[in-house]
Amino acid sequence: MSAADPSRVEIDFDHHGAEFRDDNKGAIRRMHATGCPMGHSSQYGGFWAFYGYDAVRDAARDSELFSSAHTAETPKGVPSVPYAMPLLPIDVDGEMVTHYRRIVLNTLSPAGAKHDIPRLTEICTELIDDFIESGSCDIVDALLTPLPARWILEKLNWSPDRWPEWIQWVHGLSHDAAHDPERGAWAAEQLVANVNAEIASRRSDLGDDVLSDIIRATDTDEQVRGFSLLLLLGGMDTTAGLTSNVLELIDREPAVRQRLIEEPGGIPKYAEEFLRLEAPAPSYRTVTDDAEFHGQQLRKGDRVLLMFGAAGLDPAIFENPEDIDLDRVGNRHLSFGVGPHRCLGSHHARVMFSVMLAEIIRRMPDFRISGEVERFESAGNVYAIRRLPISFTPGKRSTES
Amino acid sequence: MQVHVDPSKCQGHALCIARAPEGFDFIDLEDRAVVIEAAVTANSANLFRAAAIECPEQAIIIEGDHE
Known about the structure:
The complex is a heterodimer of chains A (401) and B (67). Chain A is α+β, with helices and mostly antiparallel strands and 401 residues long. Chain A is built from 15 helices and 12 strands. Chain A has a 5-stranded mixed β-sheet with strand order 1-2-8-5-3. A 3-stranded antiparallel β-sheet of chain A has the order 4-12-9. Chain A has a two-stranded antiparallel ribbon with strand order 6-7. In chain B, 22% of the residues lie in helices and 24% in strands.
């Protein structure tokens, strides 16, 4: 660790802490008020939080200065993650990123997302049918979590019925590890063991699915595992998180609800404003060399938190950044990141979010939050709600069971 | 009518794809959008106009649109 630069902006910030979880907009507002696009926190052995729009964008694009590599020698993350293997392609740099992304490009393309809309709508209908007559549910557990989870399991051609188990492990790693390392380690073990079992059985029975595509295009089990884990973590957790945050927003914004009821066809367009305001996930980088960057002196080995959600709330870029404006034009949010590691599942995320929101508005237009909203303890890796009890006027099932 | 995405302006927000999936494709490895040429017809002018308004970088260039 080098001596602190005297001009460095120090911020008292813990992205896994209760303050950020309970009032992330307030925490981000105070960061932007520093007038500096980044600040240094002494938590977790020291790290940089980048929150200014330009700094976040430029860092995400510059993979030479800001490495994504996660290795035993230079573990990534703040704090460093409890598993030894890199997730692919998010934890590698350069040509390898391109190589790995290419494997899933067709599946995860805009056309691939469009192709999946009927199936996603079918899953959505089925899930809502299970609770629509009761007039209440925990919408996270009943819809927001299982829909993306079942979708990614279908893509991998793993049993979609096992989603509750997978979710338990995925949440253990992404939500619990920062404050409960033991549970994080247990979740990582379970994930590795179960992914390994899926790979072993698929190797001898390749087919038309994403897991088979990955096996054909890679050399080792470790690569297949790293890629599969990324698809599970990215596929299962972030879209559910975004949608949970948005339902909480709609509950306190009657005008937004009314607009969605009157113009459900606008939901895919309005999704961008929801994405800007309720971005669930940041990203991590490691500085590769001493350098001056947006007015601050960075040192080789410095760890960086790229706050994509905070960039979307930068008052220098967005007028009244904390207000929801469904008619906002030119919404250049960075909620999917930017540069070589831009979110691989962004097209599907948009579609899944829009399908779920449209169906909730269509079938439960008067839903209200009816109990205590429980957020995941840490909002540092994924800002999301764990439990969101709602009540609504009971409706009819769409299909006979 | 001719439509193209200026590659020097496009920043890969992919809003055009979200807004008009029939009209644009995303080059993932280059983080940028392109126009699907076959989709540019007299009937699709509104679609491209809507996407052009939505583009944060004003990278969608429409030429010969006389409406």
